[in-house]
Amino acid sequence: MRPIVYFALVLGLIFVGPGRARAENTVPTPRTITVALDGTGDFSSLQEAVDSAMKGDTVLIKAGAYAQDLTVHSKEKIKIMGAGADKVTLLGRSDLVGVLHVGKWPYGATDIEISGLTIGEHGGHALGIFNGNRITLRQVHAKGMVFGQQVQDVRIEDCVIGGSETTGVHFSDSQVLLIGNVIHDNDHGVNVTGTSSVRLERNIITRNLFEAVVISDRTKAVLVNNTLVKNGGGAAFLGLSTIEASGNILSLNKVGFLMADSSQAKTSYNVLFDNEVNYMRAGSPNIHAPELQAESDMTADPRFVDAEHDDFRLKPDTTLLNRGTFHYLGALPPLLVPAQNRQ
């Protein structure tokens, strides 16, 4: 090797190498930012804490009732974790509609996870999600409407949503998974509109004044293993919607399924028990349509543990076992599965 070339390589190792090392060392380490009303955290303001969060950070909210609202936007990959839904409540402010907002136009939010807190309501709204991607709610109690528009990959899991004077969960032009939630005591339980894509799985939807689920416009929906009980109606499929509904229990509703001729619905292995009417065609007025009932449907008593007190677990002697591809029908498994039916 020529001396000049060798000297140049040595200089490169001296000056470039350490620079690379310094660049690697400047990658920020994910932080945990604490919020506490008593001043023991990094912030007492929810908004200031979230505004300070960077990619990978976690905002940990200590116990308390926060008379604050919160907007999360222009953020990526942050977690907002309360100390527990029974310990942390976001009360909002009296001059705003809604308490918690994720994303807003023209700004979005990506990879946001919210868990372990209760969200109050103002103007009937608890949480709004707008123009975002990969938003997760887990173990959240929302005491008002959860509304979303133009959001993708939203996951709402193991949450309790109820007390809205309109709709518990309403999404439009969005992609949503609702799994393992309890949605109760609203005018409507779940309403999905526009060109949405939604999957409802293992949810209990009860005591809503009107329908538990309304799927309309050009929405594509899958309803599997849900328990829709004690509502004004079970599930309504309207507009040009496309639906697959299987393995659900619809009981103690005024109407089981309400279907518009313009919708495309495939149903199988659903339990329809003690509704005033099991199937109806949408119209003015709606008309009875027993011909819509699938051959695989059942009309057997689900054998809930205590439906009067909203315990919708299945008793061990239920007949809703091993139907089609389902080990059990509805949202909750039997208290005890007989040995011969276990895998």
How would the blueprint of this fold be written?
Blueprint: H1 3-25, E1 32-35, H2 46-52, E2 58-61, E3 64-66, E4 70-72, E5 75-82, E6 88-90, E7 100-102, E8 109-119, E9 125-130, E10 132-142, E11 145-149, E12 152-157, E13 160-162, E14 167-172, E15 175-179, E16 182-184, E17 188-193, E18 197-201, E19 204-206, E20 211-215, E21 220-224, E22 227-229, E23 233-237, E24 242-246, E25 249-251, E26 255-259, E27 264-268, E28 271-273, E29 277-281, E30 287-288, E31 304-306, E32 311-314, E33 321-323, E34 326-328
Parallel strand pairs: 1-2, 2-5, 3-6, 4-7, 5-8, 6-8, 7-9, 8-10, 9-11, 10-12, 10-13, 11-14, 12-15, 13-16, 14-17, 15-18, 16-19, 17-20, 18-21, 19-22, 20-23, 21-24, 22-25, 23-26, 24-27, 25-28, 26-29
Antiparallel strand pairs: 29-30, 31-32, 33-34
Short description:
The chain has 343 residues and is mainly β. It is built from two helices and 34 strands.
Give a description of the structure.
This protein has 343 residues and is mainly β. It has a single domain (32-341), classed as Pectate Lyase C-like (3 Solenoid). 9% of the residues lie in helices and 46% in strands. The protein has a 19-stranded parallel sheet that branches. Helix 2 (46-52) links the parallel strand 1 and strand 2. The protein is elongated and about 65 Å long. The protein starts with a helix and ends in a 15-residue tail after the last strand.
